[in-house]
Amino acid sequence: MSKSKEIIVRVQCPDAGTKRIETKGNESIAEFLNKIQKTFELGDIGWNVYKTREKKEVIKTSRSRTLDAYKIKHGDMLFLFSQPTHISGQASIGVDMDTLSSSPFPSGTVQEDEVDLLLYKEDGRIPRQKDEQLCHHGPSGKCLHCVPLEPYDEKYLATCDPPIKYLSFHSYLRKLTSGVDKGKFANLENLTCKIKEGCKGHLPWPAGICTKCQPNAVTLNRQRYRHVDYIMFENPSICDQFLNYWRSTGNQRIGLMYGRYEPHKDIPLGIRAVVTAIYEPPQVNRPNKVELLDDPLEESVNRFAARLGLVPVGWIFTDLVADDLTKGTVKNFRGNVDSHFLSAEECIMAAQFQNKHQNPCKYSTEGFFGSKFVTVIVTGDQTGQIHFEGYQVSNVCMSLVRDNCLIPTKDAPELGYIKESTNEQYVPDVFYKDKDEYGNEVTQLARPLPVEYLLVDMGAAFPVEPQFTFKVTDKPFPKENRSATGEMQDFNALIHYMEQFPLSRFFEAMTEFHLLLYLSTTDMLPLKERIVTLLEAIKTGDENLAHDFKKTEEWATVEEMMAAHGVQSPGLTRQGSYVGPGASPLPPIGSASGAMWICAHCTFHNRLENQSCEMCNLPRH
Q: For the chain, where do the domains classified as CATH 3.40.140.10 start and end?
């Protein structure tokens, strides 16, 4: 019996495009359908394969019948369709069947951000008033001159003050899904610059490559949409405290911004990132360079922020050089004709952050597309004042950095460079369009590459009326990782911070981001298990819940430790303090038990002549 030849059968799906399946004519239908299931990442039920686009001649699973029995030959096209899902009570549960059919993923598979779910429900169209000169209809009628405009209407966006240069991402999605098919075949694909694995027709790279596994060449176009349209800091104090590091040391600083995403009403279907706090990770700081270090608390900080209802929304860094100390001005060397907006190295770092914080999206075959993670640079403007500028890098830049194709140049910060192929890595050609000295459009190889082709800019500023998720105090709790300025997050810092609050202001005292982070992550205090209650109280604004936390055994222990230093925290009286319900008060500070004294901090029994505790090294008095 002759060996059956390998053949390729094309399978087309309305939601996922066309894919090639390698098979053999004598392969069973069951084995062939299993290959389709794996290739398209399908479930066990809910789909059928047909020989015609009109859903005729369904191919039924069978272990005895083969492809030859169905007369399926090399190069044939088969058609994959999902079976309709029958949902009882559709109207009562509000299932949007258009959304289900237009998405490559079934509803609920991709957990999108809350702001995206809100914007999907928005009409998004731009209302227009009746024009008394052009409209000749009644008050409830609409005509060509006053009908609402689509959110992606370019003429309207160009006439805004200031003009809106980029579509919001949801306006872009509406444009994709606005055709006759209602976006049934809309599909967002992430660029890949890597060789497709598993190609069996030749030896692996560098010995061989083919059009099937070779990534396509890339021609860069400026991105016409952005995932975030505006960055709002809740109040100036957030940035002012961050900038104090540069003011006191002259060194540059990096921070991670935590906050939330919400609809931005000034841009059709827009999104803004609201910054409520800045976390400062471990780093090495110099006047002209910052080096981020590995952060052992990264996961803990993200869990802590999530319990407060916050997410990481971006990163911020300073690039400040003092100009006139008497006037308080700084130099301007970004954004002018002789300089750059972001350097190639900064673009690469922004892309690394964005790849780490990808944007979940149901319209993408991979479940994510782009990122909402923003970049803010603090620099000098043309008047010498400190200025905030917001950016993102394009989705193409994210892919180039993810696949290790883009590197900085040595001597020109405004230029990146696309790597050349080596025996270890194949790199596709990347081009961009520019104008020559005669004004003609020419295509250039991106070696080097002006990084302005990779940037998307946005506004970054403060609201007219400041907002305060966290309280601003005269003596804020020290920021993390600032030992260079003498700021330390330790028990003494907690004591000095609590001294400024009277008995009635416990909730206000606790509404401080950096204090809460210290209480949540320090091993010195016994609060890690109970702190969830306090974080929930701050998140919801529930003062009663905060006072429930204050009554816990763990916080009582902290109060005893502070009382040992003569500090009265809010609501603390030494005589009424205790460790656990029904327990006796701790012995007086420095009291002797026989020839010993008990440490008020850790209860260790020390020899009478010791002036500090042998266990915790804290002073006796």
A: 224-414+449-461
Query: Facing residues of 329 across strands?
Result: 324
Q: Within 13 Å and on the Cβ side, how many CA atoms surround 61?
A: 11
Contacts with 39 (C-beta within 8 Å, 6 or more apart), sequence order: 11, 19, 21
Instruction: Report in angstroms the alpha-carbon separations of 526 from 296, 411, 464, 556.
Output: 20, 52, 41, 10
CB atoms within 10 A of CB 57: 13
Our CA angle for 325, 327, 331, nearest 5°, is 70
CATH 3.10.20.90 domain extents, the chain: 6-82
DSSP secondary-structure letter at 350?
Answer: H
Q: How many residues does the chain have?
A: 621
Q: Which residues contact 449 (CB under 8 A, 6 or more apart)?
A: 220, 406, 415, 416, 417, 418, 430, 432
Kind and range of the H or E run holding 77: strand 77-82
Distance between CA atoms of residues 99 and 117, nearest Å: 12
d(CA 113, CA 226): 16
Tokens of 272: 């803004």
In this structure, what are the phi and psi dihedrals at residue 312, rounded to the nearest 5 degrees?
Answer: -70, 120
Mean pLDDT computed over 319-326: 87
pLDDT in tens, 398-430: 999 999 999 999 888 999 999 999 999 999 999
Is 254 in a helix, a strand, or coil? Answer: strand
pLDDT band, very low/low/confident/very high, at 461 (cuts 50, 70, 90): very high
480 and 280 in contact (C-beta within 8 Å)?
yes
Domain 224-414+449-461 has CATH 3.40.140.10: yes
Sequential DSSP letters for 187-210: -B-----SPPTT--SSPPTTS---
Residue range 6-82 in CATH 3.90.226.10: no
Distance CA 356, CA 475 (A): 35
Report pLDDT for 618. 76
- The structure tokens listed for 150 are 């689509």
